[in-house]
Amino acid sequence: MDLDGAVVIVTGSASGTGAATALCLAEKRANVVINYSRSKEKAEEVASSCSKFGVEVLVQKADVSNDGDCRLLAKVALDKWGKIDGLVNNAGTTQFCPHYDLDGLSGEDFQRIYSVNTIGPFQMIRAVAPAMKESGCGAVVNVSSVAGTQSIGSSLAYVGSKGALNAITVALARTLGPEIKVNAVCPGYIESGWHRRGIGEKATDRMVEAMKKTTPLQAISTPKDIADTVVWLLEGAPNITGELFTIDAGMGLLRGGLPARQ
Predict the structure, then answer these.
(1) What is the dihedral of CA 78, 84, 122, 34, to 10 degrees?
(2) How confident is the model at residue 255 (pLDDT cuts 50, 70, 90)?
(3) What is the Cα–Cα distance from 179 to 200, expressed in whole angstroms?
(4) Can you give the pTM of this predicted structure?
(5) 227-250, pLDDT tens digit by residue?
(6) Which end of the chain has fewer CB atoms at under 10 Å, N or C?
């Protein structure tokens, strides 16, 4: 896909990885739909930064767990540009709860997390699929997590929701081709406010320090690191679909207990 003049919707793009992705796309001369659910001011700041690259930007409030909102996101893009070339399903949520605490999450908690992390991406893909099929060169990137491939992460509900998203990614890649390719990125820990809000500053600092010492690349991913891979999957990789790309500085390689260095 030639991103110059392309139209890409990025859900959950008021901050973090979504914002970084929107900025990377704008730098590549893509027109972007910035989506937020609560942080309008932050979304408008991202839009302003994107506009500096000379592209057109829309800011649209939408809750991806609501099918009507998903269809509205697709509609505003089509009404303005007459096409949709790319979709980045970045919006996500969680509730921090130790996996051993079987009473820590209710059924309602599971439903809320699945509705955003799993059902939301499906509803967004369904909303944009007709326009992408018409263009013949659509691309979808789901922002998943190593939680869905390694069964680690903030809560059992989060693990399950991302595992389901990975399965849907592969299934839809099979059924939506050749007009649409569907892939996912699976980040490990990302340096953002997510964990700091969830488990606190001190616990996050300890975790980050341990990761920097033990992962093979001795690094922590930034939102820009994830965004660069997302943009690559949209812009290039013409023969790649149905794949899950781990971005974790090699953290997953240590699951067998091997040290990063002898």
Answers:
(1) -80
(2) low
(3) 44
(4) 0.92
(5) 999 999 999 999 999 999 999 999
(6) C
- Residues 20, 39: Cα–Cα separation, whole Å: 15
- Percent of the chain clearing pLDDT 90 (strictly above): 81
Q: Give long-range contacts, CB 8 A cutoff, 24+ apart: 67-76.
A: 67/123, 67/127, 70/120, 70/123, 70/124, 70/126, 70/127, 71/127, 73/9, 73/11, 73/33, 73/35, 73/124, 73/127, 74/9, 74/124, 74/127, 74/128, 74/131, 76/33
Residue 4, number of CB atoms within 10 A of its CB: 11
Q: Quick check: is 158 catalytic?
A: yes
- Both ends of the chain: CA-CA distance in Å? 43
DSSP state of 118: I
CATH of domain 7-194+221-247: 3.40.50.720
Cα(174)–Cα(182) distance, rounded to whole angstroms? 9
Which whole number is the average pLDDT over 133-139?
93
- Annotated catalytic residue: which of 36, 114, 158, 189? 158
User: What's the confidence (pLDDT) of residue 194?
Assistant: 62
In this structure, are residues 14 and 91 in contact, taking their beta carbons and an 8 Å threshold?
no
The tens digit of pLDDT for each residue in 55-94 reads 999 999 999 999 999 999 999 999 999 999 999 999 999 9
Helix/strand/coil percent split, the chain, to 5: 50, 15, 35
Give the mean pLDDT of 94-103.
95
